[in-house]
Amino acid sequence: xxxxxxxxxxxxxxxxxxxxxxxxxxxxxxxxxxxxxxxxxxxxxxxxxxxxxxxxxxxxxxxxxxxxxxxxxxxxxxxxxxxxxxxxxxxxxxxxxxxxxxxxxxxxxxxxxxxxxxxxxxxxxxxxxxxxxxxxxxxxxxxxxxxxxxxxxxxxxxxxxxxxxxxxxxxxxxxxxxxxxxxxxxxxxxxxxxxxxxxxxxxxxxxxxxxxxxxxxxxxxxxxxxxxxxxxxxxxxxxxxxxxxxxxxxxxxxxxxxxxxxxxxxxxxxxxxxxxxxxxxxxxxxxxxxxxxxxxxxxxxxxxxxxxxxxxxxxxxxxxxxxxxxxxxxxxxxxxxxxxxxxxx
Length: 345
Prior knowledge:
The protein contains 7 helices and 12 strands. With about 350 residues, the chain is of the alpha+beta class. It folds into 2 domains: about 5-145, Nuclear Transport Factor 2, Chain: A; about 175-330, Roll (Nuclear Transport Factor 2, Chain: A). The longest helix has 16 residues, at about 225-240. Residues about 335-340 have low confidence and may be disordered. This is Polyketide cyclase.
């Protein structure tokens, strides 16, 4: 039986591989005529091969010279959520020298690793009919040394690949459904929490969902942390203090493949801003948040979790343009006219 993951994996990596000539790639073999790609802020919705070429492929190739794709996780499976179908989920880096603006963000003229989470719907003929792409532009700002937020809460680092080094096209041994079951149960129980301790039932302990040595790799602005105590201290406490009424789980895609699972919502979360967060004063306004989660499990425990959040979009809803704020650090003034100093988290 043909592995439906192979063709898109080959296509995406060839697209950002060594140059094969000056001509634009022919995307019609790999994309349906009305293929629709949703990009994280400040990107747009792109429909058809011409718009994908002009709005996604060319901007990356122009901004990151000799850009290469470096997958860390590439899995696929049937989607449990409507609209169903076969989907791919990928955690990758786009690697290159940042030589020209990308989505308005000024370049650093140095090597960067641009994180990206990607979900693709694959039709029966093997072509991509839908894509959701979430770039971590906040982390890219950190790499340019023009970081408009306070210091990262956890430890900022390059997203590592899975500890088992088997995240690319893992052999499906029938565990995908059970892996996704585990992650879905964790997400369901995490909705309710103790406002004093920020703990949710069933998350830790001998019968808990998470491995004692869990690693949580958060996006730019949050960073990574180790074990449940680190997760609560470096992410969960501040997030739930700011957004205590948050409701998540509005996912368009949930898939499991071997001991990996991936879920995404666009947006996934709705909430109101009730506490200060990353330097932004609370004002009670309603917010939404786009989310992508990638999980590795072993022995019926979640061992690693990679998370991408569209914080450019979130802060835009709060009235802030983080790209403009980052760019203003080049001139030494913030958009408000006050002195802006680079922050090196």
